[in-house]
Every structure is written in structure tokens, then in C-alpha cells.
């Protein structure tokens, strides 16, 4: 590990600026089925997804029906491999498996269906007309993680080796055109040496219902409308705010309802959820946690298409409100005493605007969020404090699919406001993201999180072969406020503050190599270095490295 750290330091002094990773494009866009012949033709856009998601194992291309979407036709909101619809990326397989629609297999020739053995499980006719049918899905994921200094040496473990196995299977029942039900079951196993965080309910999980929804849908007022109730993952939010928590064995799910309506160039999503309680580690024991609530509305408008540098361009303007209600460790804030925290509960009202899409060969993404609300201390006699925080996130990537390696080069910048822990009476100025922003977004190791943070760095991605993808990101980090603490993932507030000099925190070069070596299979390697400033090292923070290897099978 000394050799690894020494090598990473050499990157820092020399070619670090070229070791860039994590583009805004999803590599799963290699196969883009066109519009199904059974559906209304979708608007064609060259838009590459700006949602940074892990590579999805691809189905057998030879077994896919030519022209099939494998998800409902959202017309112009099919952009970004369906991500613009608010239901996550779908590229044959989806982030949310219930967002898939395999009905195109009903009319597929037997020669095509037989090309992939699993096609017989994707469309199972249950009546003569085919109006009632079922689709099955499954995932087996084996993941190994090595960290020599977890949480910058503050996790209480060194040289941690974790082995995670996720078994996840689902069944999607369609009862005609207007009703469908989906159930997904999960069993998670975790082991290793010098492990940590295994008793939080996000790594080890006895057999339980991971997702279970009932959807009623149809056309009304010229829109595709629907209501989805039950336990589900939620992806209709900026990745800097919300993710399915796919780094761990157990994804983050919510219990509640969402209603959506999609017109030709405008859509709206209304939702109200309580977080699923994963701590009861017994068979079918998961319930609802009333300590965390997510609610709000998300709208997206497709702006008029235009030409730029000879390329068709499409931008989307999203306006949203996300409400957070939560307590516990994640809601705590630093006190004036070094290392101290004040417990309480908080309401965070996030009002935001996102402008994203493609301008010619440039994929762009700009998000601005104002966060209001209040913090209520647990201890009686202490005053309720207002919240006044903000975040600005942006990225731009120039892509050349006509060049060898189909490269994309760009830059990503982020600002999450900080406050002052010396001011215990004024407004709380530290931006909060309690519900697990996408770990691939900025820091895979979770040693830093999206609070009191400035990050900027180059990004790049390459398609070396149709099944071999490389992406890199090198973010440099600072504290947004030197009068505020340094924050890590999972509600961690580091005790360094008064003795920490300067705002520069460090740099974390990250590289991911993913190989879809066979249909349904993906083998991914993630490497990240944690290179800290002298000020951070002087107060006790430790540099390190993370290596993660993932072998995933999906059908």
C-alpha cells in the first residue's frame, strides 16, 4: 500500500491533471434501441445522458428486438437513455427494474427471442390475448472493497477488506394497459477483515421485500399519467441531492406515493415518501422509518430544439422543490466547542433550477439550489434556528463519437455552502444532503460529502471498445467556509477545525474501468486516491487509497 500511495503522490506532482474521471455521460448508452413499432415515434435527440451512473450489464444485442425501447415511450423525455423521464437510466436493463417494459417481445420472431435464453423470462404470456403478462428480473453482484485508511483514518479500522454479495430478484405483473404490480426481493451478505459499518442495515440484509409497488396509469388531459404507491427507489432529483445508494448492498428505498404526468414537452412528478427502515435484520422485518421524510414536486420542460455547429441540440429546464424532514446523526450540527455536536431535527426546503442537455457536441448540466427551513435543537431551552444555505453544481463535456475511443473531455465544478460553528444563534449556513448523493458523483470513498465543500476538476471518458469503457475524474477540494467543519459521508463530522489551517482539503484522483465481457455481465474496477493538504495531515487526517472490484450479472 505504501507503493500505491507513493504512486498516487507522483500523480499529484506530475500528471494528476490528466488523470481525470467520471463524465456526465452514462456508458450504458452504447446500445440505444430506436422507437418500438408498437409505440408512437419518439423525438430523436443526440443527447447523451449527463447522469453519472455505473455501467449497466447489457443484454444480448442480438436478442433485442430491433426498434424496441424496452421502456414506455416518453417521447422527447426518452433523452438520456430514458433518464429525462424521471425514472432513471434504462438501456435494456434499468436502474429501477420496474421502469423496464419488455412487451415488444410479444411480437418478436422466435429466431430473435431464442438468441437469449433469458428472453423467455422477460415476457411470459398469462392469457390468450397477451393483455396479462409477467416479466422476471434478477441480479447477482459480488463486490470487493479495500481501503487502507477509511474515512481519512477516522473509521477506527485500517486495511479494511470488505466482501459484499447482493442477490436481488423481481417480478413485474401487467394486468392490461392500466394496472401493474412489481415485487422485488433482496438478500445481502457481507464479510471480510477489519470491516466497519456492517450493523447499519445497508450491507447485511436478511431476505426481505426491497421494492413493492402498485401502479395505475392511463391517458388523461392529453398526458400519460400514473400513480405509483408502495416501496420504491426514487431517482427524480439531481444526482447531487439523491441517489439509490448503489454503493452498498442495500439500495435506499422509500415507502409512499408518487404521481406523474408527461405531456409532449412538459412533465411533472409529485411525491411524498418516508424512508424504509432497514435496521431490523430479520426475515421480512423491514418497516417504515418515520425519522426521514422526502416530499415535493419536480417539473421538466423540453425547450425548443435548435442547431449548433451542425448538430441537433436539445436543452431541458427543470424546476423543483424537494422537502427533507429528518433527525438523528445526519441532522446534528457542530457546536462552538471543538469536536462537539448539537443534536436535533431539521426541515430543509430545497428550491432549485436545473438547465441541462446538449448544445452541439457539448453535454451541459447546471443546477442551482437554495435551501431554507429550520433546525430544532433536542435540548430544551435552545432556540430554533433558520436554515439559509445553497448549492451550485455544473459540468460541461465535449464529446467526439467520430474519433477513435469516442472520447469526452470536460470539467465539473461544485459549491455546497458552509456556515460558522462559532455562530450558534444565527441561521445555519451548511448545505445538507442527508439522503446519500451519488457516490460516483464526487468521492467514491465517502471520506468527504456534499457539505461545506468546493470541488472542481477535469473529467474524461473513453469507449476503448464497444464493451470496454474508461472514465476518470480528478476533483480538487476546498472548504467553502473555513469557520465550518469538514464533513464525511454517513453524517460524519470530523473534529478538525480550530487547528486546521487554510481552506484547501486535498485532491482525489479517480479512475473506473468497466468491461461488459459477455451479455448480462459487467466487471468493473474503481481506484481512488485520497491525497490531502498539509493542513489536513497536520491535524491527523491520513492519506490513503481505495480499490473496488465489482462482478455483476443481470437479466
Report the structural category.
mainly beta
Over all CA atoms, what is the radius of gyration?
Answer: 23 Å
- Number of contiguous helices: 5
Between the first and last Cα atoms, what is the distance in angstroms? 37 Å
- Say how many strands there are: 27
Q: How much beta, percentage-wise?
A: over 45%
Helix content: under 10%
Global morphology: globular
Summarize the structure.
The protein is mostly beta strands. It is 5% helix and 45% strand.
Task: Give an overview in words.
This protein has helices at residues 2-13, 110-113, 119-122, 150-153, 534-538; strands at 90-91, 93-94, 124-125, 132-147, 160-175, 179-193, 205-220, 223-232, 254-262, 266-277, 287-302, 306-308, 311-327, 333-334, 341-342, 344-359, 362-377, 385-386, 389-399, 408-416, 453-465, 468-473, 476-478, 504-507, 510-518, 521-532, 544-554. It is mainly beta and 555 residues long. Residues 1-28 form the signal peptide. It holds the Pfam family Alginate_exp.
Name the descriptors.
disordered N terminus; Alginate_export_dom; 23-stranded antiparallel beta sheet; 5 helices; globular; Alginate export family protein
Amino acid at each position: 500500500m505504501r507503493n500505491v500511495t507513493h504512486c498516487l503522490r507522483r500523480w499529484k506532482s506530475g500528471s494528476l491533471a490528466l488523470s481525470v474521471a467520471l463524465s456526465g455521460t452514462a456508458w450504458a448508452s452504447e446500445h440505444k434501441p430506436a422507437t418500438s413499432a408498437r409505440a408512437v415515434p419518439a423525438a430523436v435527440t443526440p443527447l447523451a445522458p449527463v447522469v453519472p451512473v455505473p455501467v449497466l450489464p447489457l443484454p444480448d444485442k442480438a436478442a433485442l428486438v430491433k426498434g424496441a425501447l424496452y421502456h414506455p415511450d416518453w417521447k422527447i423525455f426518452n433523452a438520456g437513455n430514458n433518464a429525462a423521464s424521471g425514472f432513471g437510466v434504462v438501456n435494456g436493463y434499468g436502474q429501477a427494474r420496474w421502469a423496464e417494459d419488455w412487451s415488444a417481445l410479444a411480437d418478436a420472431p422466435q429466431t430473435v427471442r431464442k438468441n437469449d435464453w433469458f428472453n423467455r423470462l422477460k415476457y411470459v404470456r398469462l392469457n390468450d390475448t397477451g393483455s396479462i403478462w409477467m416479466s422476471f428480473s434478477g441480479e447477482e453482484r459480488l463486490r470487493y472493497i479495500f481501503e487502507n485508511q477509511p474515512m481519512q483514518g477516522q473509521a477506527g479500522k485500517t486495511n479494511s477488506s470488505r466482501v459484499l454479495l447482493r442477490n436481488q430478484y423481481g417480478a413485474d405483473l401487467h394486468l392490461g394497459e392500466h394496472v401493474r404490480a412489481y415485487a422485488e426481493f433482496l438478500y445481502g451478505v457481507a464479510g471480510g477483515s477489519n470491516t466497519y459499518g456492517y450493523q447499519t442495515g445497508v450491507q447485511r440484509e436478511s431476505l426481505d421485500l426491497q421494492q413493492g409497488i402498485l401502479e395505475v396509469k392511463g391517458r388523461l388531459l392529453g398526458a400519460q399519467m400514473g400513480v405509483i404507491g408502495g416501496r420504491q427507489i426514487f431517482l427524480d432529483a439531481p444526482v447531487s441531492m439523491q441517489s439509490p445508494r448503489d454503493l452498498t448492498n442495500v439500495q435506499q428505498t422509500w415507502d409512499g406515493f408518487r404521481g406523474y404526468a408527461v405531456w409532449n414537452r412538459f412533465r411533472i412528478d409529485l411525491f411524498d415518501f418516508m424512508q424504509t427502515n432497514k435496521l431490523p435484520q430479520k426475515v421480512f422485518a423491514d418497516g417504515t422509518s418515520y425519522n426521514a421524510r422526502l416530499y415535493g414536486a419536480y417539473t421538466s420542460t423540453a425547450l425548443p430544439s435548435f442547431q449548433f455547429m451542425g448538430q441537433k441540440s436539445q436543452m431541458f429546464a427543470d424546476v423543483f422543490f424537494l422537502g427533507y424532514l429528518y433527525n438523528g446523526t445526519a441532522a446534528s450540527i457542530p457546536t462552538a466547542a471543538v469536536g462537539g455536536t448539537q443534536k436535533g431535527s431539521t426541515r430543509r426546503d430545497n428550491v432549485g433550477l436545473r438547465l441541462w442537455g446538449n448544445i452541439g457536441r457539448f453535454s451541459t448540466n447546471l443546477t442551482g439550489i437554495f435551501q431554507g427551513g429550520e433546525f430544532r435543537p433536542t435540548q430544551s431551552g435552545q432556540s430554533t434556528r433558520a436554515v439559509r444555505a445553497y448549492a451550485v453544481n455544473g459540468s460541461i463535456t465535449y464529446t467526439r463519437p467520430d474519433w477513435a475511443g469516442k472520447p469526452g473531455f470536460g470539467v465539473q465544478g461544485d459549491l455546497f455552502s458552509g456556515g460558522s460553528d462559532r455562530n450558534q444563534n444565527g441561521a445555519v449556513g451548511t448545505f445538507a444532503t442527508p439522503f446519500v448523493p451519488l457516490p460516483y458523483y464526487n468521492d467514491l470513498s465517502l471520506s468527504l460529502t456534499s457539505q461545506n465543500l468546493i470541488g472542481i476538476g477535469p473529467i474524461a471518458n473513453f469507449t476503448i471498445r464497444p464493451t470496454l469503457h474508461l472514465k476518470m475524474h480528478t476533483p480538487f477540494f476546498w472548504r467553502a467556509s473555513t469557520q465550518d467543519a469538514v464533513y464525511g459521508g454517513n453524517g460524519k463530522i470530523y473534529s478538525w477545525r480550530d487547528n486546521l489551517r487554510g481552506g484547501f482539503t486535498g485532491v482525489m484522483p479517480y479512475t473506473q474501468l468497466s468491461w461488459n465481457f459477455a451479455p448480462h455481465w459487467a466487471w468493473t474496477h474503481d481506484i481512488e486516491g485520497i491525497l490531502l493538504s498539509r493542513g489536513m495531515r497536520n491535524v491527523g487526517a491520513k492519506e490513503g487509497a481505495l480499490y473496488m472490484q465489482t462482478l455483476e450479472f443481470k437479466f
